[in-house]
Amino acid sequence: MNRTFKKCVFSALVLLSFSTSALFSQNKHEALSSFLQPKCIPKLNFSGTPLFKHGYWIVRLSWNPSAIPSGSVLKLYRNGHFLEKFSLGNPFHFRDRHLKKGQTYKYKLIARKSGTTITSQTRFIRVTDHAKKRFHFRASVKEKTNNSLVKLSWNPSLSFDAKKFKLYRGNHLLETFSALGPFHFKDQKREKDHIYTYTLIALNSENEVIKSARLKVNTKRCCTPPTSTTIPNQTFPLSIPVVFPVAGFFQSTLPLTFSAIGLPSGLTIDPTTGVISGTPNRPGAFNVTVTATSSCGSTSQSFTITIQGIPVG
What we know:
Elements: H1 3-23, H2 28-36, E1 47-53, E2 56-62, E3 73-78, E4 81-87, E5 93-99, E6 104-113, E7 116-126, E8 138-143, E9 148-153, E10 164-169, E11 172-178, E12 184-190, E13 195-203, E14 209-218, E15 227-228, E16 234-237, E17 242-245, E18 250-251, E19 257-261, E20 267-269, E21 275-278, E22 284-294, E23 297-308
Parallel strand pairs: 16-23
Antiparallel strand pairs: 1-2, 2-5, 3-4, 3-6, 6-7, 8-9, 9-12, 10-11, 10-13, 13-14, 15-18, 17-21, 19-22, 20-21, 22-23
């Protein structure tokens, strides 16, 4: 069975699976919408370039993470040895110094949140002076309330011998950079659901173009469902007013609405603030499930509320 035939069979099975699930779905339009929904795949866009500077070799590493949840931490390793820890903010680069020419180094960048690995990327970089002329031009999009932020980064190889770089959006010059950096730029307040073309040009000392690279960036919103952490069990006295906020156990970049099932008699949840309040009027142990919903999906957490006391009468 050749490779082309295998691909055709796999594609047919995928389409058949989707068609069957959509057919038996209670809401066919919802199933189709879910199938067409753009997927948020966490990416690190990790790259590295060897350089010879000040009499020794270095490897210049850069990354431009996209679809990584806020609050995540990035950890960088070389050959299993921990180098540095970074937040999602700048810098998006690191210089590993005093390396040996001719050696190949294994670099690994790991994104973690709350002790769980979200994604990772590995690069094998050989320290040599025969590097190709490359920009390693990358882009990622971060959604804001009314617009989008486009983050651009590049990591030019040693063989450019460029004196400066120029960055354009369409025909509009955004910024001119020296050969020493910085090698990143934030293009603020871009329209949502729009395609932008960015061009990066390297120029020599005579202002001649050495090389250029172009990127098309789509700012279409990438839906990321909300996430949540465990809500601890709670105990409250009978007939005493209760105020228990649960919004802090749910995380999202979009507005959330809250709902709950299984609440003790007398307690309700505010759908906007996520505060459980009221006066319980019946003792017992109650299994409660709180759900937080955004325009991109929902997440739930279950916990137990115990009401202690002896009812009067």
